[in-house]
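Fig. S4 source data, part A: sequence.
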Amino acid sequence: MGPVPDIVAKQAELRKLDGNTFFKKDRLGAAIDAYTEAITLCPNVAVYWTNRALCFKKRNEWSKVEDDCRTALKLDHNSVKAHYMLGLALLDRQEFAEGIKQLEKSLELGRGAHPASYMVEEIWQELAKAKFSDWERSSFTRSDNLRILQEACENSLRKYHGLDGSDEILIEEQIKELKNVFAKAALADQPTDVPDHLCCKITLDIFRDPVITPSGVSYERAVILEHLHKVGKFDPVTREPLEPYQLVPNLAIKEAVQSFLTEHGWAYKMR
């Protein structure tokens, strides 16, 4: 695709601004028309496609959201909004694994660009919801499979002892032991408390993007940045002076959190 003349590019940008105005007034049809005109004039600008996709998202027209986001990603594979909305569109048609993958990519890109932005928080909320739903489906399947297997094992055990004439007390003791085995197997899917060292000392929620201060205290990145901006440049726990540039990613805690969430998907559920 050849370069667009400057005068055409300027016209396209004006139509985009018109679309933004219409969108803020919730005039979605007019906004879609304006963005479509911008796309027609200058189809190689990813943001025109994602802006129109956002209108389709508000209308729940997910197939159109998907189409526009895929086009946007061909133009800019690092578009946070395109990955995010594509993920939502895929989740809507129950392509859970690929939808979650797109949300994870948008979160990674968003944290790199603007770690404290509302967009990052919104992406995390949707990702956590999708991960929890995925765990819930898997947990139900595992629970059902365990129940069926337990019943089959108990029946087989009773039949076996029925053939060799074992007494009822021995049978019941072995059945009790069998139930204990299956109860332990089901523990991984039972919600408990998240370990304190995996939680931010300010939000008390499980870490998403942990950073550590020179004082050795870990916080959620967006939360400590907001504290430094609005409250003051000091560590809220130790009260030591603290600047944003002194925050270092806590990769050990981040890895521990990811490992915990992989084994305990129930922890994705937001309070």
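Fig. S4 source data, part B ends here. The mean pLDDT is 91.
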